[in-house]
């Protein structure tokens, strides 16, 4: 699917999942070229939980293997690349990438469609992003409460607004497979799952304080804030153990 005019993306395989080596600046430059080329790209912001899920679930692995761009969102992914001897330039956090894209799109008046979360959160997110980045165009938005029977309607609503970027917040286990299933029909240059970013932008929840970010412990802050995430977070120590145990195979190609 990739346009031949686009640059080759340098990647490192993390247990077979090809993760981009670029830092934030090069990633944003590349995605700017993607929008110019109008080449549909599914962008996945990968963390250790997603990598572990891909190793256990063949369907989820297919989603990740066929994504046009995977950035190292989780610090664990950055660490694993270092352990495997093929470091990435830096962590490219999905929340920060979202904002960098909004800033880059102001001068070009990029059209943005927001999909997911609750009606209140999505409306507030749209309003705040428009205020923060007056040059972008919020082409449309709708909440994430719809089932498979409504997918065709949602896809048409998105396509009718002709967005440059589609941001989807429906939970990591849902948003990536949904984008993958419909990316050909959606045909949006950048389609990216953003998890809980709308909750933070709207003010519903807070991002981890700078100290947690600097200590690379945002996961710990989220766990302390949302103890119900405990079961999901069990994948983190499992990932660490696997990386240390299979040190020589972390960055081996499939």
Describe the structure in your own words.
The chain has 254 residues and is α/β, with parallel strands linked by helices. 49% of the residues lie in helices and 15% in strands. It is built from 13 helices and eight strands. The strands form two sheets. A six-stranded parallel beta sheet has the order 4-3-8-7-5-6, with helices on both faces. The protein has a two-stranded antiparallel ribbon with strand order 1-2. α3 packs across α8. The protein is globular and about 50 Å long. The model has no long low-confidence stretch (mean pLDDT 89).
Supply the key terms.
six-stranded parallel β-sheet; TagA_TarA; alpha/beta; 15% strand; 13 helices; 8 strands; globular; two-stranded antiparallel sheet; 254 residues
Quickly describe the structure.
This protein has 254 residues and is of the alpha/beta class. It has 13 helices and eight strands.
Tally of helical segments = 13
The total of beta strands comes to 8
> Would you tell me the overall average pLDDT?
89
**Class from helix and strand fractions:** alpha/beta
Elements, N to C (H/E): EEHEHHEHHEHEHEHEHHHHH
Strand content: 15-25%
Helix content: 40-55%
Shape annotation = globular
EC number: 2.4.1.187
Keywords: Cell wall biogenesis/degradation, Glycosyltransferase, Teichoic acid biosynthesis, Transferase
InterPro entries: TagA_TarA, WecG_TagA_CpsF
Enzyme class: transferase
Task: Compile the SSE list and pairings.
Layout lengths: L10 E4 L2 E4 L3 H14 L3 E6 L1 H9 L1 H8 L3 E4 L2 H9 L10 H12 L5 E6 L2 H14 L4 E6 L8 H10 L4 E5 L2 H15 L3 E4 L3 H6 L7 H5 L3 H8 L4 H4 L1 H11 L9
Parallel strand pairs: 3-4, 3-8, 5-6, 5-7, 7-8
Antiparallel strand pairs: 1-2
Helix pairs in contact: 1-5, 2-3, 2-13, 3-8
